[in-house]
Amino acid sequence: MPAVTMEKHKDGDFFVDYEDKVFEDVKAEEGQKALVTFHTVAFEGSIGLVNILNAIRLNRKGYETSILLYGPGVTLGIQRGFPTLGDAAFPGHQNFADNLKKFMSEGGKVYACRFALQALYGHGEPSLLEGIIPIAPQDVLDLKLIHVRDNAVIVDTWTV
């Protein structure tokens, strides 16, 4: 067996040059919009959290940013907790709620499909985090079409 002669890595060590940015830092032009859609289940992968963080970043870059929760995506926007609502049963348990609240507090809009909320996941509008706007299932397509018409940046998140 070859001997490993390198020192062990320590907290604070760098593995990559995280300061070397290759592309320009794009900012929104006046009136530009962005839409981030979620058709993904809470806690089934990292994409839900990653694209909420992307929506926050788009908003901070000046885009008028909206999030659409539809299908299983509505599970990102419901209140949760244990033993009571709002409690974190484990580290990261409230990541979705905390970041959606941050996004909305910075001016972002979040929409949730009423059909998915009730028919698919057995929740009512009172289950949604404060500030999330419930919409009719027909509005899901129209919200996307409005953003396409307005040449918005659209990030679709779809997992199965």
UniProtKB/TrEMBL annotation:
Q: Which InterPro entries match?
A: DsrEFH-like, MSMEG0572
| Gene3D superfamilies recorded | DsrEFH-like
Q: So which domain of life are we looking at?
A: Bacteria
Q: Which NCBIfam families match?
A: MSMEG_0572_fam
Question: Mind telling me what this protein is named?
Answer: MSMEG_0572 family protein
